[in-house]
Amino acid sequence: MPFRQLSLDLPNSHSVSPQVQAAIEQLACNPQADARGAIFTRQEVVEFILDLVGYREEQPLHTMRLLEPSFGRGDFLLAIIKRLLKAWRAFQSNGVALDDLSDAIRAVELHHTSFKHTTAAVINLLESDGLDSKTATTLSKRWLSQGDFLLTPLDGEFEVVVGNPPYIRPELIPAPLLAAYRNRYRTMFDRADIYIPFIERMLSVLSNQGHLGVICSDRWMKNRYGGPLRRLIAEQFHLKIYVDMVDTPAFHSEVVAYPAITVITREKAEATRLAYRPTVETRALTQLADVLRAPVLSKESTMVQELATVTDAAQPWLLKSSEQVALIRRLEQSFPALEAVECKVGIGVATGADQAFIGDFETLDVEGDRKLPLVTFSPA
Ligand SMILES: C[S@@+](CC[C@H](N)C(=O)[O-])C[C@H]1O[C@@H](n2cnc3c(N)ncnc32)[C@H](O)[C@@H]1O
Prior knowledge:
The protein is of the alpha/beta class. It has a single domain (7-327), classed as Vaccinia Virus protein VP39 (Rossmann fold, 3-Layer(aba) Sandwich). 34% of the residues lie in helices and 13% in strands. It has 12 helices and 9 strands. A 9-stranded mixed beta sheet has the order 3-2-1-4-5-7-6-8-9, sandwiched between helices. Helix 1 (18-28) packs across helix 7, helix 2 (43-52) runs parallel beside helix 10 and helix 3 (75-91) packs parallel to helix 5 (112-128). 36% of the residues are buried. The mean pLDDT is 92. The structure holds S-adenosylmethionine (SAM). The site of S-adenosylmethionine has 22 residues, from helix 3 and strand 2.
């Protein structure tokens, strides 16, 4: 059965247990941005993602429904509203704002203070665009809600789902809340970070023609906890675009998050378009978005590549050029996996005194039967 959000399968947050409610409140009141996984997206990157998902002023945006699951201080939301108002004025010059726009946006934020400040900024933006204050306040109430995106009921489907979900490791999520997430989200697996069930829920409410555009850490594309989400995408979605944003200033603060942008749809899976580490500058990103979205990719294109199959059940995604993937496939066919020949593969050694314990195998002054051969590798 196609994977869709049923309005019945998520009780509203008032019907969760008092312990879960208390845990949500604890996070919602936490002034520390780290505890809420708050990292804010640079404006150029926000505009790039909106371009990639087709949320462009030349489209009748007031006829689409857009979801932003964790709007923070509004980096996506305010840009979205500006585009929406421009498109609405162009397409509906005599329109009535409340009639035409009430259904255009749904946006959620957990943190009370961010919610309050961003609501004020939204009202301010609507008023400065010429809407009267009653209309501006009513629209903000229809559009914005305060709560936990993973437990808040949502009405209907969305043509556009965009955002930068929070990053919270499972050990930092209060236990009753973590249990509630594990109970509801099949991708909340192993040591999955909270952005994983966020993507699951964002995908679940995507309409047939919808586009999801998300910026977040790329770790789940290869690691163990990302397996169930990769499987879900391989089975029911199309990974349309991937942009590696590692070492680019994608966020307002410097974070060690290996960011990537992915655009995912419900279309039949075809080739994935890939771009690597673009210059974060408006003109360059506008051009790149045009190439990534072009109906046919020019053979001369140097900025963008196409890979025939990236998603394959829960397999890690190989997002390198086709030559590199071909090399990996050839090596896989010619040699056994390291673990099949009794090698242990880990993320590093933790001896506590590497200078004493790691050295040239032959000359290391330790009994032979105590020595283990070790190979280390650092990616370029
Ligand atoms: C990474 S920030 C992104 C903010 C904004 N969308 C942007 O891109 O700049 C994540 C936001 O998610 C909020 N948040 C954390 N947990 C949440 C939850 N369970 N439901 C909704 N929002 C949540 C945080 O307070 C924070 O504002």
